[in-house]
## 1
Amino acid sequence: MADAQSQQENESTQASRDIFAMDTYMNVTAYGVGANEAVRRAEEEIERLDSLLSTGDQNSEIYQINQNGGGILSEDTAYLVERSLDLYQSTNGAFDIAIYPVMKAWGFTDDNFRVPEEEELQELLTLTDVNDISYDSRTKEISFQKEGMQIDLGGIAKGYTSARIMDIYRECGLKSGLVNLGGNVQALGTKTDGSKWRVAVQNPQDTDQYIGVLSIQDKAVITSGGYERYFEQDGKTYHHIIDPKTGYPAENGLISVSIVTADGTLADGLSTSVFIMGKEAATEYWRAHSDEFDMILMTDDRKIYVTEGIANSFESELDTKIIEKES
């Protein structure tokens, strides 16, 4: 009896830490005997990846690659570039790490917001073709074919970070833990009592409210929406999710996209991509990849669509329609 009680106490040992990194507030929480060690290592990993992948830190690998027009990538950066290039092809260009010059023109990289002239955008769009990136997966060497090209892995970095923290939790022998990286959530296992984690999906039209609650186990839930970063000029709102085909904020009828999958890196990349695609293209894409992820969409007329793989795990008081694998 004493052994059972001791084991239960060890499993319920909790360690938690709040961190500010990657321009957002984060929380890592772990349960179990190795919880304190896991949280300490998680914080170190967040700081390491932030300093590696930051576009603004002059000492970061990405900054140096952008300044030099290429170079030899470290293991983490090479992995993310490879995943990003795959996603670019898979999403028909919706996920584009070469969009950075356009993001800078809008001021989304340094908060000096402005609406660029059409001519300026058209010129910058010539620098955003991922096919102009040369990458050798054997040597990990990357180079840009056009002067002025720059990349940004911000659309995939937080998801990769949460996935890495899940690896650390497992290495520390944990079976229960949660990571919240600025609203991007990834869970290890279940709660200590065996019940599933319950993740609130934020309402993009009222960020103090949520559109529903999703029950998850060993999954990431990553949401993208125009409400995350935006500015107003002359009565019009401009958000930070840029459509690589136009150079303007995506306007395809979606105001929020949540991706649900065991792969945090994929969840992060797809949340942006699906938002840019719009509901119809996103639905077709999901049907072709339904074994890889599920999604929750909110349209600008306040309708919610949930793919059938998570329909039974999602609770909402709003009108919800199920997207089925067969149309």
## 2
Amino acid sequence: MMGVRLRAHLVAFALVAPLLAFIVLFFLWPLVAMTTVAVSDPTVARALPETSAVAGDWDRVSPPPAELQEALVADLRALDDQQVLGDVTRRLNSAQAGFRTLMGKTVSAVRETEGPVDLVAVDKRWENPAFWRAVADYAGSIYTDRNLLAAVDLERNVAGEIVAMPEGSSANFAILVRTFVVAATVTLGCLLIGLPYAMLAAAVDGWRRQLLLAAVLLPLWTSLLVRTAAWFILLQDNGLINATLMASGLTSAPIPLIFNRLGVVIAMVHVLLPFMVLPIFSVLLAIPKNLMPAAASLGAHPVRAFLRVLLPLSLRGIVSGSLLVFMSAIGYYITPALIGGPRDQLISSVIAFYATGSANWGMAGALGLVLLAATLVLYAVYGRLSADRTARA
């Protein structure tokens, strides 16, 4: 009997093993890697081991001890990998501007001299404690909250307290706010269009329903890049939309619909509309069609019947569709990059810059964690609302 049960368990595990492997390889592993990159930066600590050993004892307030300066000189003298030196310089320069020229000058002086080196004599900038704090912060520990704080325009001061970054030094938080505002606007636009459309599709049947659903599903069969490029053509000053408006006499000049927020919202609403329509449609199909006529027979106005009967019953589909659209919108990259202007780029563009433009994977991972946290919060809210509605039912 036990052998039969064990065999059944092994068969069941073999059936789900490919799915588990897929989840681990393509979801959990990238998530762990992104989190690790966001909270750790071992480049400087590994490249400057002696400096790392001494930096932890410095309080970052008093002048740097002679042991720290000697350790830095020894590490720079022993560092012969130019690629690693370049990585160290980029890390330090991101914390304190001026390290690119300072490191080049210091490394040359250190390698040309035997024995102790007076770094202040090499460059007066070594008298500035800010440069030493940057070295100590990066070399002191491989784990840091620097990237997570910088993702929302925060940093630690000399005393270790979390404070806001100086104005103009970073715009990550402003772009995050812009991303959420655009995502909320797109979600509202999809809801205003998708709810009536889903109600119409659920009210008809036969070929009419198939035609309405095909019109919604058709964009999903087309590449996102192709759809965005199509809107790029349609929204131009001499595109089809402006040409139609001017030909009908509604406008005397082209309306700016591209390289601005309006064009981004229009294109994103079109792309994400199916994710709003389909969840609402699936919920509406399960609602008995005689409820609205019953409410009308009892004297309810159609608007009142909709607000009191149909809307509450379709709320689960509305919340599901809104959640799907919002989570998709906050991570959009192609559409804002092609349709929007410089002030319309979302946080995905910043992540792409850090990942490919400056090779700062830590900041890219930290910003990705911010979006992941927002998604998890939305999931938690949705789960709580669903649980409350189930409990009341």
## 3
Amino acid sequence: MPVKAASALPIIHIAPWLEDHNHKGRLSTSAAIHAACLEYGFFYLDISSYIDPQEPEELARLARQFFSQPLEEKNKISLNREDHARGYARLNENVTNGKPDNHEGIDFYRPVERPDKSKPLWGENQWPDIPGFREKYEAWVEKMKKLGIIVMEAMSFGLGMSREEWADLRAKVDDSFWVMRVIGYPPLPNDHEGYFCGAHRDYGCLTFLWADPTEDALQVFLPQPAAVVDDEINNGMPKAEETLEQGVWVSADPLPGCIVCNIGEMWEIWTNGLYKSTLHRVIHQGMNYRIPFFFEPNFDAVIAPLAAAHRIQDELPGEHHLKKRQKMKTYGPTKYGDFLLRKIGGNFANGGGKGKYDN
């Protein structure tokens, strides 16, 4: 079994950032997020004061209703009816590390002006013909978009950014080219190696994941050895190539009132490598459902290292600072839309066998 207690991910309450005058609480939350991003790249975000817990339960119910339909019904909103990015992806259609993922899902992206399904990512979202589905999922999108701005502002405090610097950063995410996936994980065939989705890093900004109560499904790789390492740490499965460094897989089991939050590669660039996008994978543990929401930069945003990150790195103690600088990767500016198109171009099995999470 993967390690649990030895390397539990931190639980951070967003409540102070929902209150107008809790300055001390906001500073504490921001410091906790900053520490979690430095050490893990993952954390639990307690949003029990922000949402009704029955909301995601209802979304899962609607997901089950959709995925339980015959394939011909689900194919009415198939990816190939639009821009090959928006719509239903059948089993094994999505690819990670060159291998098909044994899950099915529906992908939604931020609506665009003048849709053209012949252009990558520029089609229209396809919604299941299930009463209440679109209405309730669109309401969730709006809440997650607002939560994205809230968490981004909290992170700006943790990095010591000025109001002017935060305003500049906010302008790069205020029209987020968000992505939402509704994912169903069915029973696996006997010859499957045990992965629903192989080890990968998220490439965007922030991921907010709601998952059903299934334990030991989502696992996060921590490069530093934990205090206690179980001999069964990898659950009997082969290591991905990316996990040959020393470390452990930690279960990020669902917690009541919380979502799992992690950072993507855009935050690596913004922090000039201070924060790292962390490897994670989904393991076969029976049927379950997950709803990840990816809060991303604006499509035309240019992502470059922040002055606040440089200030933190420049203030590191002398010897540690020198070693850090010697190992530091150079992060140049990246236009998010171009980066996304490169990633999404090989997302599916009919697109050449290379997935959007591959390196």
## 4
Amino acid sequence: MTLTIVAGHDDIADIPTPAERITLLGRAAEWGQLQSALTDGRLHHAWLFQGPEGIGKATTAYAFARRLIGGEGVLVDQAHGEPSFHEDHPVLRQMAQGSHPNFLHIRRPPMDRGEGFRTQITVDEVRRLNHFFRSTAADNWRVALIDPADDMNRNAANALLKILEEPPERSIFLIVNHMPGRLLPTIRSRARTLRFSPLSAEAVARGLAASFPEQDASSITAAAKLSGGSLRSAYHQIVSGGLEIMQEVDKVYGAGRTDWRHVHALADSLSQKGREEAWGLVRDGLFDRLAQDARRAVTTGDQRLGAALAEFWRSETGRWQDAAAFNLDRKQTLITFASGLAAVREKNR
């Protein structure tokens, strides 16, 4: 089936988007919770899909929206307990094309002029929900996907909160959230949280093998291992030279003495035009390693180092988000990260 997909700011060329995926890879447990809530008649009006980027939250949201709007006939049992969908089903096609009257996907909009996308979800985008609910009948589920909520500016978040406080009849909000600290506590309090853990390496490898049947098994295994449980990251490993980039990340993040010459050289390279995907890979690789080190320190009894690394992760996450939102200098962003990491390690030796 060939679909005309509404483009998104984070699409990867030639890789199926969450709207196109017909199998929910590695998310049988999360799907089971949603199904149970639906069949038991306790489906909350707002669900917060929370977890790292690229692990299937938006894909799960699309799958569940199809289930609500398209009915039982959409589902097909799979060997791994994962739901699948008939690729010629009209609901799948309409939702992927952004034309189904009972489904609205709120995300960063295109720029008013020229190419590219805005750096935030604006209040005008969230206000589209008011028209959406007014113009659709409540005789079937009406599903709004906010993806990700992290991208909302303050006005947009407040506008969403107002709608969540008095939800329309027979409506459901599926809210994707990568980092809890970027979301208003009042929004979190009005939604039921469904936590997503990173995918298993086996699930990532299956996803890669399906998308890249010509790729050799050793590259698939290496990309899955380096992905941190993120299928999105694994895709970048294959299509964007990610395996080589991760070697560069290891040199920056290495636990020994910081090689400042290498840090500056990498920062200069990533500051060039057209290196957006490589920059994203470096960002994800650094933060994955930082989170792993924090967990490792806690489990080995070094609570002081674990707490310091966790706090550094939190503060740097916000700083990199701001850098992306305001298009700040990449070189300075990376150098500041490396300097801060070195200081944390030195202080907690």
